[in-house]
Amino acid sequence: MTPQETVTVLLDEEYGYRTWIWETGMTPSDLEAWWSSKEHLGAYFFTPTGLPGDVKRVDEDLTGLDAKWNAVLDRGPDGSGEITEDEVQKQIAALCRNHPFKLTYTDTGEPAPEKQPDWWTGHIHIEDDSHLKTNDGRIIVHAGYESAVKEREHGSSASP
After folding, report:
1. pLDDT tens digits, 16-48
2. Which residues have CB under 8 Å from 9's CB, separation 6+?
3. Domain ranges of the chain
4. Which pTM was predicted?
């Protein structure tokens, strides 16, 4: 990524267990400065749609996987009993590992772009666990992160 390119973030939102593609419209240095300056992230607790730039919800495309799961379950202890519960778990885990990871836009069902090596990732929830992670693995926390961690460690609860 050149310094003038903007950052895209694959964002994990814990409140609703949802995933978002956040096209920030910011350069890496601008995004780091913006995020680092935020004392509180509570405005994004329930949904990150208020973040600057374009934020779109995505889901993993599981097309065809449920039929494969059901076929395995039908052979397990609650079905025909051909295979053990342990074998059911192993086969389902293998199905998931081997299923291609693809995202689709939730509102349209259209394919979303594949995660690119220069994308950042992020997690948003409460003050003491929200962060961004650059494509080289560096963690960026917001201005209120440290005080939220101290509050949690001293028995206060962090809230949105």
Report:
1. 899 999 999 999 999 999 999 998 888 888 999
2. 21, 22, 24, 31, 119, 120, 121, 122, 132
3. 8-60+103-153, 65-98
4. 0.75
